[in-house]
Structures are given as C-alpha cells and as structure tokens.
User: Which sequence fits this backbone?
C-alpha cells in the first residue's frame, strides 16, 4: 500500500491537500473561465468520454501546462518523463506510461476532478469553480484550468504510452 493511502497518514494527506490547494495555480490567464463559463460534462462510470471543447487537445501545450508551476503543476505531486524538470513529486501516482493505463475519458475525469473517482484524493479539482476551502484570491470563482487546457493536458497524458 502506498504510504499516502495508509490510515495512519490521514493528517499528512490533509496537510498535503492544504498545501496543494494553497499553492496550485498562479496568475490566471486573461480570459480564464469563470463559474458561468464552465462547460457541462457527463460522467460515465469512471470516465468523461466527451471532450470539453470542439478543439482537439494539443499535447505540446498540455506538457507546458503540466509543468507550469503556476498552472497545472502536476509535478508538485507526480513524476512525469521530463528530464529537465527537477523536484518532481511522489505523493500521487507516477504518470510515466499513464496513456497506456487509462483512456482519454478516464484521464479527463481525473483532471477535471479526481475526487469523483476517489473521494479521498488529495488532488485538486482542476475544472470546477466553487467548493474549495481556501481558494487563492485570483482563482476564487474560477477553475484552475480552462476547458481547452484540460483537453491539452489530457492529450499530453494520453501520449505517455511508455
């Protein structure tokens, strides 16, 4: 059992979740979505099978969003196959080869809101605008990622086959 799933580490998980919520993101891009702009999506089991946008995700843009310490910030908790990025996290699952383990719909749901898959996940919801305990002032009422950024991150993660 990974250390972060052991019952004795509940306080540690809570502290990590607080820290992630406090530091995730960065200045919101001009034109970032607000609560009113969120695209409706349908969860089908453990998947959101339909993309949030009509524009296919761009894996290059998704890789940039994933390593952006002021955006997706995946590296705070996960390992990605990016050699020039130091200080990769080990709280969440290793994302090397995740595209071979999960399909795009499964990846999309986890990026949108991992708590819909695992209610005890410490991963923040990247595509919701309310219900956060202490959102950063610049993110209040806004998702961390836009619908297109979600699709870009999904395209990048889906490309990680090995």
Assistant:
């Amino acid at each position: 059992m990974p250390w972060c799933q052991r019952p004795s580490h509940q306080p540690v998980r809570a502290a990590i979740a607080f820290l992630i919520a406090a530091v995730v993101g960065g200045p919101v891009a001009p034109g970032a979505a607000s609560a009113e702009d969120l695209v409706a999506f349908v969860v089908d089991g453990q998947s959101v099978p339909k993309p949030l946008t009509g524009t296919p995700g761009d894996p290059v843009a998704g890789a940039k969003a994933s390593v952006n310490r002021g955006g997706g910030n995946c590296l705070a908790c996960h390992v990605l196959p990016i050699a020039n990025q130091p200080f990769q996290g080990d709280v969440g699952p290793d994302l090397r080869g995740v595209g071979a383990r999960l399909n795009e719909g499964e990846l999309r749901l986890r990026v949108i809101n991992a708590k819909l898959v695992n209610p005890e996940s410490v991963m923040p919801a990247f595509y919701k605008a309310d219900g956060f305990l202490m959102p950063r002032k610049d993110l209040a009422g806004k998702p961390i990622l836009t619908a297109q950024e979600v699709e870009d991150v999904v395209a990048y993660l889906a490309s990680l086959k090995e």
In short: Residues 1-31 have pLDDT under 50 and may be disordered. Helices lie at 10-23, 59-67, 98-101, 104-113, 147-158.
